[in-house]
Please model this.
Amino acid sequence: MIRRDGQRLLLDGPVTLATHVALRDAATPLMTDAALEIDWQGVDAVDSSALSLILHWRRAAVAAGRSITLHNLPSGVTALAELYGVSEFVDG
Model:
């Protein structure tokens, strides 16, 4: 589901309403670096809860004085971000 490789968190499998809370909770203790990368390459399904997760991670990073960079976002996530008008929070 999520694992750490250096400063990069690697997501695997679906990021959907069914997995949202588990991913959020699993990522929290892994987000300790000042600059963290989250790689979505292994994600095979998304819904709008993926945006919620990204926004949660961004808020937590800002509150802790950290930065997050997103890599390999599925096209569905970027399309949803455009639809909801939150692209600036989702882009890299």
The mean pLDDT is 92. The two ends are 21 Å apart (CA to CA). The chain has one domain: 2-90. The helical segments are 20-27, 49-63, 75-84, 87-90.
